[in-house]
């Protein structure tokens, strides 16, 4: 088993330090967001901050375990891990516990475990395994379909459990596949879809179709070399279809609460009474969290001094809205620092991924960065009102054992793979 | 390129977030202000508003509790509006209207929903209040007037308006602020400083405890009591005498500039402007465009002073050395100049020296004096500027600087004033009306009273003021520093002698008061109004100025009674009685008193609105009040006298 006695020194300490910084600072903010009254007993395990402390300690045990397992294990058993993970997701339909409208939890004793958190890691391993297979060529449609199936299964399973946020996270694999050679066509389609959807929801299908028509045919006339008019006509018809189709999708497929979120984000709702109602329900969180962040000013109000944090104005502040505590208590300095540390961690993982000689490790590393990035982007974007409200935790920061452990596993498998880089050949 | 997509996306996301943080935390101004922070409940502790006492220590204004229904719109839960409205005695429309108002002010800040409940309503509502979330009752202190007089002096308090809050951020919605009178002038002293407690709320709006252990909390500073210069007894007496008349009276103490009484008729009971009825009553008073009870005639009424201004011309003539006291001016029933004549009621060939000129109010005498002043150096332009600056040294033609917030400048013309009418040549005869206090000269009652005080003092005055004492604080120095006129002391004696003779044998000889040497001067001023765009003359104003006693004067006053016909007819009577009241404390000339109570000028005031042709001056009649009203007035007088005996 032991091939290199010095392997402890091959772990990427930069990643580990950034990881610890985030988890530690996350805990500090969970204290602020969840403490009641002036007295704080850090070891009061009935309180979220006490529990989180246990989770963090258990994390260290988990890390030791993850690093002790042979790197090859992860690659070899990736399919098994994936299958087990999918079974655990399906099992929720039978044994799941309903919390806040989502059946994404197993209750074991006093604890709850959220298998969807771990399914991301399992899917990352499976995708890495499949893409790195010598027989796989991601440029072929057949393999694209296959890898799509690997990704879509957990995505659909969590969607069925009403966990929209987690479903969207599986979109992260797009970045991975694109890096590994997925045709540019998909990127263009993806970006066009997003732009078309937003435009047609905001300005209506007719205007959007008109604009896209001008752009598409304008492009055709100014770039006449080897272009086929038929392709452009098709593209135009498609975009028209999407422009009108999205309205139908929005009106008939989306559930009312999802529609509300989008309409608030795009400021579609004009009825003042309806807006008022929104402000009292889900938009309340957003409003309060923006105000909490705003009240932090440049340097923040200081640890446990935030009035909105202390007054528990932001519901779920220790989970999805934890970043608003950072904003209120640590101000522009502290919150920018958190953003920067996240960006550094992501860039570091990406950088390491590019250094991998094994494609499996590279794809996996890329998946880690992409998954964390999507969480980071959606969560902080939502808390600051930049994107529609989607419930999704901030990695390493938000309260919760499942989340913390799932991200620990996700990251430390990669650290282990990376440490093995030297020994690959 | 493929490798870089995610790198770029990550860095862009980081930049986007930092810019958003910059926007929310630094660019956005409302961050970090405890007052803007809806997580912090601000509880105000209103101090007691200072009391107001009159110069003799009689309590005029104190406080009474009042209860406001407050609303915080965001915290309102669905409620039984029908029950709520019936408890508040309002209809549903009003409810909706008020709610919208509150919401527009701010969904999260308290707003006065229904101000000043009656005690009975409060008792009923208090028990049921818990049913109506988002509404609560706030106790506040209202003014309690111990008297029905002096509304124009005392002023009132009312809720702050948006403008007040913009001008001074101290004020928050629902705070009270002094309007008019001493309430406005001494607002900050009377008000004190409200205390504030910052209380941490949770999102269910429950109090968790003091914010940061209360280190930002402040305790209220009590409002200070003030004593004003008004003599409530004199004020009440003056207001009673002015019943059924219109006009303004200001009585000053020459040795200090203290305002002893300031009467604006018609007056109203200050209690009308307290409590829930305030706005209704205010509107009523405000809309009365005929009697204009809110128009403070004693400070804002600008009248031509008429004959009292002759005193000023006499003083200037002496000071400029253009006339001596013994110089004789012969009056041939008027003053003839350039083929025109300014009439006078002297018999043909009357020879007047200065005392005689004043005593008989001879127009010819003062026209001569005025022309001599202006033509002293052969240049009327220079002369009128000299004349103007002497008059202005008495506080005429500009704001006096007293401590009440309303007033008028009046007018003392100078050469510059005439530059459009007479751009080139300018002769003294052009402005001859100024000689007799008409033409372009205009004063307010308080200015004229101040002029008389300066004469009484033989050359100086103290800026008139209403404040006598502030608890633990000196009154402003400007009220205790004498201001000197440009007239030398010795030049006052002939003028004062003339004023004394007005009482002894002149136009006011019928108004003498036993044992008091009063110096006075009558005035009768033409006045006009516009009826159907025609300039129409009304009965003359009755004006009287006086001070007493002649030596060591205690009171100087100016009385204007609109359309009272001639000076001694109404104004002179009022002046004599006020002087006697102030100096003796009781009235011996009850005949004058009775005459004033019995007679009314309301018929004069109705004439321009009657739509009928009407007679003035010589063709007017003297009318009496109804026997019932006379009886009422007598009863009020008796009550007043009783109070004095008891007090
Ligand atoms: Zn004459």
From TrEMBL, chain A:
One of its GO terms (biological process) is regulation of cell shape. The keyword Transmembrane helix applies. The chain crosses the membrane at residues 13-32, 53-71, 77-95, 147-177, 189-222, 229-250, 330-351, 363-390, 396-415. Its main location: membrane. Keywords: Cell shape, Membrane, Transmembrane, Transmembrane helix. It comes from the Bacteria. The keyword Membrane applies. This is Rod shape-determining protein RodA. The lineage of its organism: Bacteria, Pseudomonadati, Bacteroidota, Flavobacteriia, Flavobacteriales.
UniProtKB/TrEMBL annotation, chain B:
InterPro entries: Beta-lactam/transpept (IPR050515), Beta-lactam/transpept-like (IPR012338), PBP_dimer (IPR005311), PBP_dimer_sf (IPR036138), PCN-bd_Tpept (IPR001460), Penicillin-binding_protein_2 (IPR017790). The keyword Transmembrane applies. The chain crosses the membrane at residues 5-23. GO terms for biological process: cell wall organization; peptidoglycan biosynthetic process; proteolysis; regulation of cell shape. Gene3D superfamilies: DD-peptidase/beta-lactamase superfamily, Penicillin-binding protein 2a (Domain 2), Penicillin-binding protein 2a, domain 3. Residues 247-576 form the Penicillin-binding protein transpeptidase domain. It comes from Aestuariibaculum marinum. It is an enzyme of class 3 (hydrolase). It comes from the Bacteria. Keywords: Carboxypeptidase, Cell inner membrane, Cell membrane, Cell shape, Cell wall biogenesis/degradation, Hydrolase, Membrane, Peptidoglycan synthesis, Protease, Transmembrane, Transmembrane helix. Pfam families: PBP_dimer, Transpeptidase. This is Penicillin-binding protein 2. It is a single-pass membrane protein. It is found in: Cell membrane; Membrane. The keyword Mitochondrion does not apply. GO terms for cellular component: plasma membrane. GO terms for molecular function: penicillin binding; peptidoglycan L,D-transpeptidase activity; serine-type D-Ala-D-Ala carboxypeptidase activity. Its main location: membrane. NCBIfam families: pbp2_mrdA (TIGR03423). Residues 46-208 form the Penicillin-binding protein dimerisation domain. The gene is mrdA. Its EC number is 3.4.16.4.
């Amino acid at each position: 088993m032991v091939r290199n006695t010095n392997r402890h020194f091959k772990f990427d300490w930069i990643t580990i330090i950034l990881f610890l910084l985030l988890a530690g600072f996350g805990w500090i903010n969970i204290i602020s967001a969840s403490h009641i009254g002036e007295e704080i007993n850090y070891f009061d395990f009935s309180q979220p901050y006490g529990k989180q402390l246990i989770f963090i300690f258990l994390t260290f045990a988990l890390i030791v375990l993850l690093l002790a397992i042979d790197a090859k294990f992860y690659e070899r058993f990736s399919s098994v891990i994936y299958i087990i993970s999918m079974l655990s997701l399906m099992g929720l339909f039978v044994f799941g516990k309903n919390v806040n409208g989502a059946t994404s939890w197993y209750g074991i004793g006093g604890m709850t475990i959220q298998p969807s958190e771990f399914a991301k890691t399992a899917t990352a391993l499976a995708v890495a395994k499949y893409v790195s297979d010598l027989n796989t060529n991601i440029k072929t449609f057949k393999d694209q379909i296959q890898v799509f199936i690997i990704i879509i299964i957990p995505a659909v399973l969590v969607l069925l459990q009403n966990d929209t946020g987690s479903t969207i996270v599986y979109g992260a694999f797009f970045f991975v596949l694109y890096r590994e050679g997925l045709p540019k066509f998909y990127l263009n389609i993806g970006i066009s879809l997003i732009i078309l959807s937003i435009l047609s929801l905001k300005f209506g299908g007719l205007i959007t179709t008109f604009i896209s028509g001008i752009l598409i045919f304008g492009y055709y006339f100014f770039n006449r070399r080897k272009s086929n008019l038929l392709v452009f006509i098709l593209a135009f018809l498609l975009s028209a279809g999407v422009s009108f189709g999205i309205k139908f999708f929005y009106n008939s497929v989306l559930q009312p609460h999802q529609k509300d979120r989008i309409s608030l984000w795009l400021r579609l709702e004009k009825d003042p009474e309806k807006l008022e109602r929104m402000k009292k329900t889900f938009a309340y969180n957003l409003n309060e969290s923006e105000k909490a962040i705003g009240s932090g000013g440049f340097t923040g109000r200081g640890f446990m001094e935030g009035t909105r944090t202390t007054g528990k104005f932001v519901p779920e502040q220790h989970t999805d809205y934890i970043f608003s505590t950072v904003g209120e208590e640590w101000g522009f300095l502290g919150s920018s620092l958190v953003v920067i540390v996240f960006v550094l961690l992501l860039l570091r993982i990406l950088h390491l991924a590019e250094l991998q000689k094994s494609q499996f490790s590279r794809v996996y590393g890329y998946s880690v960065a992409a998954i964390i990035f999507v969480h980071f982007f959606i969560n902080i974007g939502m808390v600051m009102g930049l994107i529609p409200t989607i419930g999704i935790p901030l990695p390493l920061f938000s309260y919760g054992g499942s989340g913390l452990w799932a991200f620990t596993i996700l990251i430390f498998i990669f650290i282990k793979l990376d440490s093995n880089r030297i020994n690959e050949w | 390129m493929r490798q870089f997509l995610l790198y770029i996306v990550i860095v862009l996301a980081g930049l986007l977030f930092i810019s958003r943080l910059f926007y929310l935390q630094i660019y956005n101004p409302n961050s970090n202000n405890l007052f803007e922070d809806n997580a912090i409940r601000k509880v105000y502790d209103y101090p007691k508003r200072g009391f107001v006492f009159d110069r003799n220590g009689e309590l005029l204004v104190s406080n009474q509790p009042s209860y406001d229904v407050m609303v915080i719109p965001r915290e309102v839960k669905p409620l039984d509006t029908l029950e709520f409205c019936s408890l508040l005695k309002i209809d549903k429309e009003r409810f909706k209207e008020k709610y919208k108002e509150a919401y527009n002010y701010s969904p999260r800040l308290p707003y006065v929903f229904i101000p000043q409940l009656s005690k009975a309503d409060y008792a009923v509502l208090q028990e049921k209040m818990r049913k109506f979330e988002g509404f609560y009752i706030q106790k506040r202190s209202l003014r309690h007037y111990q008297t029905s007089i002096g509304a124009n002096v005392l002023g009132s308090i009312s809720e702050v308006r948006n403008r007040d809050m913009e001008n001074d951020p101290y004020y928050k919605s629902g705070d009270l602020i002094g309007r008019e009178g001493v309430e406005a002038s001494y607002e900050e002293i009377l008000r004190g400083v409200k205390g504030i407690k910052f209380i941490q709320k949770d999102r269910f709006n429950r109090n968790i405890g003091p914010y940061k252990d209360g280190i930002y909390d402040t305790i209220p500073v009590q409002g200070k009591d003030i004593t004003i210069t008004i003599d409530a007894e004199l004020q009440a007496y003056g207001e009673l005498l002015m019943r059924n008349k219109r006009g303004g009276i200001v009585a000053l103490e020459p040795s200090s500039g203290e305002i002893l009484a300031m009467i604006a008729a018609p007056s109203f009971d200050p209690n009308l402007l307290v409590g829930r009825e305030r706005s209704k009553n205010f509107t009523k008073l405000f809309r009365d465009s005929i009697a204009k009870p809110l128009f403070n005639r004693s400070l804002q009424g600008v009248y031509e002073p008429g004959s009292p201004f002759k005193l000023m011309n006499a003083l200037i003539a002496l000071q400029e050395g253009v006339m001596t006291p013994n110089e004789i001016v012969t009056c041939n029933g008027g003053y003839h100049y350039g083929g025109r004549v300014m009439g006078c009621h002297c018999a043909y060939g009357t020879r007047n020296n200065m005392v005689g000129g004043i005593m008989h109010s001879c127009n010819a005498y003062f026209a001569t004096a005025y022309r001599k002043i202006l033509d002293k150096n052969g240049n009327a332009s220079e002369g009128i500027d000299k004349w103007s600056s002497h008059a202005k040294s008495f506080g005429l033609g500009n704001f006096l600087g007293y401590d009440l917030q309303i007033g008028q400048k009046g007018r003392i013309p100078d050469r510059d004033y005439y530059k459009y009418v007479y751009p080139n040549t300018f002769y003294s005869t052009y402005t001859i009306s100024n000689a007799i206090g008409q033409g372009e000269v205009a004063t307010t009652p308080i200015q004229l009273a101040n002029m008389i005080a300066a004469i009484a003092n033989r050359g100086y005055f103290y800026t008139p003021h209403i404040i006598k004492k502030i608890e633990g604080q000196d009154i402003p120095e400007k009220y205790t520093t004498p201001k000197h006129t440009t007239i030398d002391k010795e030049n006052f004696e002939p003028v004062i002698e003339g004023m004394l003779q007005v009482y002894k044998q002149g136009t006011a000889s019928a108004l003498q008061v036993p044992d008091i040497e009063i110096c006075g001067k009558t005035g009768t001023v033409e006045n006009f109004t516009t009826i159907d765009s025609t300039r129409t003359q009304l009965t003359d104003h009755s004006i009287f100025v006086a001070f007493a006693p002649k030596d060591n004067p205690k009171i100087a006053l100016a009385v204007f009674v609109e359309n009272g016909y001639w000076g001694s007819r109404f104004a002179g009577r009022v002046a004599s009685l006020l002087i006697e009241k102030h100096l003796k404390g009781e009235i011996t000339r009850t005949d004058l008193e009775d005459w004033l109570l019995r007679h009314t000028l309301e018929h004069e005031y109705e004439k321009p609105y009657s739509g009928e042709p009407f007679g003035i001056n010589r063709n007017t009649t003297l009318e009496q009040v109804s026997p019932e009203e006379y009886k009422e007035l007598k009863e009020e007088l008796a009550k007043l006298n009783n109070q004095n005996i008891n007090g």
